[in-house]
Amino acid sequence: MIVREKTDSYLLVKQHDHALVSGEFARHWAEELWPPGPTLHAITNHDVAWQGPDASVRWNEETGRPYSFIDYPAAPKLAAYTAGLDLLETEDLYAACLCSMHYETLVRRSQGEVEVAFVEGEVSRQRRLKAAMSDAEIGSLEHNLRFLKLCDGLSLFVCLNEPGQNDYPPPYPEGLTLEGRKFEPVWEDERTLRLEPNPFSGPFQVSVPYQSFGKDGQSLGDGRLELSITCQAGAPPLRNSNAVEGNV
């Protein structure tokens, strides 16, 4: 779960629902993705592994709050990661490789036994998947991984921040960047957000379902975060003039 702590409650967003919003950011990005279908599929489904763990809310007895993606126990989390990547591999090899790279980079700094075994397994998976790709596909992976992480960070920003708040989410405390460009979120009001510089082809809406729980663990019902993503008047989308097929 993504956990936004409020004064007297917790707002919880399922990881896969957050990833669907990541896909909306990617879908409206002005720059062309390559390969477009598999890259968008990876970004939209990069947290499909969390569908099992997020089926119910698990509370951390030590902290007295729901487990989030940050402190969720390593063994069941990494088992879910592996199962999710196995599923993606049956759907699209490129998307599976991109998501494997994403998870592996998140875990590689941990030195626990299960983390080390997971990283070794995913490096092996990536090697096997790349053997079935073209040189152009392989050459596009690193850029598209950075783009996946940007869209992930944008969606986490929306899910974790109250309107008007600009705290950058873990694991992206350095901000929202891509290829040396930093994108600054600007709140126009509590339901409208834009990025500077503008990277989008046009305005669009995002809607994120959530669950609300009191600090006592009692359910307070469900709702939706509704947000308009707008473009500054007169600002054309920022494009990468150096983009080329296979290495955008």
Identify the notable features of this structure and list them briefly.
40% helix; alpha+beta; disordered C terminus; 6 helices; seven-stranded mixed β-sheet; two-stranded antiparallel sheet; 9 strands; 248 residues
Description:
The protein is an alpha+beta fold and 248 residues long. The chain has one domain. It contains six helices and nine strands, in the order ββααββααααβββββ. The chain has helices spanning 15-27, 36-44, 74-91, 93-107, 113-130, 135-160; strands at 2-5, 9-13, 59-60, 65-66, 176-178, 181-189, 192-196, 204-214, 219-229. A seven-stranded mixed sheet has the order 1-2-8-9-7-6-5. A two-stranded antiparallel ribbon has the order 3-4. Strand 6 (181-189) and strand 7 (192-196) form a beta hairpin. The longest helix is centred in the middle third of the chain and has 26 residues, at 135-160. It is globular, with a radius of gyration of 18 Å. The chain starts with a strand and ends in a 19-residue tail after the last strand. 35% of the residues are buried.
List the helices and strands in order. Answer: EEHHEEHHHHEEEEE
Q: How many separate helices?
A: 6
Please tell me what the overall shape is: globular
- List low-confidence stretches: 240-248
Tell me the major beta sheet. 7 strands, mixed
Can you give the helix content as a percent range? 25-40%
The domain count comes to: 1
Over all CA atoms, what is the radius of gyration? 18 Å
Summarize the structure.
The chain is an alpha+beta fold. It has helices spanning 15-27, 36-44, 74-91, 93-107, 113-130, 135-160, and strands at 2-5, 9-13, 59-60, 65-66, 176-178, 181-189, 192-196, 204-214, 219-229.
